[in-house]
From TrEMBL:
It comes from the Bacteria. This is Aminotransferase class I/II-fold pyridoxal phosphate-dependent enzyme. InterPro entries: AspAT_Ic, PyrdxlP-dep_Trfase, PyrdxlP-dep_Trfase_major, PyrdxlP-dep_Trfase_small. Transmembrane segments: none annotated. SUPFAM superfamilies: PLP-dependent transferases. One of its GO terms (molecular function) is transaminase activity. Keywords: Aminotransferase, Transferase. Coiled coil: none annotated. It comes from Fodinibacter luteus. Pfam families: Asp_aminotransf (PF12897).
Length: 426
């Protein structure tokens, strides 16, 4: 069995032996000519196949209210689909909009509406402020950060912990600085940490005093239903918490079926206070006469009920869980006890967050690339792509076949070990 002594505690000679062994393992790895990709948080073909009954739906062209779904209209989405997902997201159907295929587009629309017009409780449009700042839990979702960067919005980071964003840090950033207009939260099985925001943290985020009267929490519940175990996390009820705390307009919730049915042809949702929803639709009416209701009806018929969605997610879990287990197994086998890496064992979502020794993430990604294993660029999970400690790597095991995940992760582990041995031998 392998020596499990932490590398940092080994003598220079032992370390030199270890480094030499990792160099040989890495040379053998590069000789295999692999071409594997762990960058993409996409559903696999087998997962997409689960929803192929959609391709033969809808059956008929009218919804329960007799509306012809082929025609214009119905900006807030089909009532039946809103009722189904309102149950799953623990919101009131009146406060839920079913829109197009992308929740990211809805987030972008809400952001731009606030910049151009302000929100229901804004003293002025955000574009008329000297500066707009968002609080960004890190590691986080790169597209959240690039969206803000594209509008020149400044980003202040706070650590993401197992129970959600470091709420002490958030409270102190938000309390005194009126330029802080919003924050991102991926509450359930966060990208990439897998963290789940607890009811307590959600309660504090909902209730904390904010210098900006129109402070917004972009509550991106992209993985609300994406459990990897039978112990299914229930997302905190942010709308009720915020409302009870006297900040009803603070949260805007987003979700979609991108990783439930089809990632390019699902349905996206927005939920917020009635006033926020009215403001959103009030702006949206100038951009759209109505969403793709044919697709919405197809989804209603495919799922049948909220319970149908839950059962469908179990089939995803059966495909995904072994891949996540393979990531953990490969890292544990090669690196367990060595003190050179820590990684998450998420109970849901699409990612594993891997922290290597400080200053080693970019090196690991380069080593992997040269061995034919594509990893997300180091730093991608931080604003402006800059991880101040150069230690975080986001792993996405959903898309490759199980065997490919096993092979790729054994390779990644070799790269982590080699980079660590190099660093400690410096
Ligand atoms: N939000 C998070 C946290 C994600 O990880 C992703 C996709 O990776 C999205 C949103 C994209 O959502 P959609 O496909 O609904 O635009």
């Amino acid at each position: 069995t392998a020596d499990r002594t932490p590398l940092a505690q080994r003598s220079p000679e032992e370390l030199a032996t270890y480094l030499e062994r990792q160099r040989r393992a890495y040379a053998a790895l590069t000789e295999r000519g692999l071409r594997l990709d762990l960058t993409r948080g996409k559903p696999s073909t087998a997962q997409l196949d689960l929803s192929d009954a959609l391709l033969r739906l809808p059956d008929g062209v009218t919804d329960a209210d007799g509306v012809d779904v082929r025609n214009y209209g119905g900006l807030s989405g089909l009532r039946e689909l809103r009722e189904m997902f309102a149950e799953l997201l623990w919101v009131d159907p009146d406060q839920l909009v079913a829109g197009g295929s992308s929740s990211l587009t809805m987030m972008h629309d809400v952001l731009v509406q606030h910049l151009l017009h302000g929100g229901v409780d804004s003293p002025r449009p955000w574009r008329d402020e000297d500066k707009v700042t968002f609080v960004c839990p890190v590691p986080g979702y790169d597209r959240h950060f690039t969206m803000l960067a594209s509008y020149g919005i400044e980003m202040l980071t706070v650590p993401m912990r197992g129970d959600g964003p470091d709420v002490d840090a958030v409270e102190s950033l938000v309390r005194d600085d009126p330029s802080v207009k919003g924050m991102w939260v991926v509450p359930t099985y966060a990208n990439p940490s897998g963290s789940v925001v607890t009811q307590e943290v959600a309660g504090r985020l909902a209730a904390m005093p904010a210098a900006a009267p129109d402070f917004r929490i972009f509550w991106d519940n992209a993985y609300a239903l994406h459990h990897l175990t039978s112990n299914e996390a229930k997302s905190a009820d942010i709308l009720s918490l915020a409302s009870a705390a006297g900040h009803p307009h603070r949260p805007v919730m987003f979700a979609s079926t991108s990783k439930i049915t089809y990632a390019g042809a699902g349905v996206a949702f927005l939920a917020a206070s009635r006033e926020n929803v009215a403001a959103y639709l009030g702006h949206q009416q100038f951009a759209s006469i109505g969403p793709d209701k044919v697709n919405q009806l197809r989804h209603v018929q495919f799922f049948g009920s909220a319970e149908g969605v839950r059962q469908h997610m179990v089939r995803h879990r059966e495909i995904l869980a072994p891949k996540f287990a393979a990531v953990d197994a490969a890292l544990t086998a090669a690196l367990g006890g060595l003190g050179v890496a820590e990684w998450t064992r998420p109970a849901g979502g699409y990612f594993v967050s891997l922290d290597v020794l400080d200053g080693c993430a970019a090196r690991v990604v380069t080593l992997a690339k040269e061995a034919g294993i594509a990893l997300t660029p180091a730093g991608a999970s931080f604003p402006h792509g800059a991880d101040p400690r150069d230690r975080n790597i986001r792993l996405a095991p959903s898309f490759p076949e199980l065997e490919e995940v096993e092979t790729a992760m054994a390779g990644v582990a070799t790269c982590v070990a080699l980079a660590a041995a190099e660093r400690l031998s410096d």
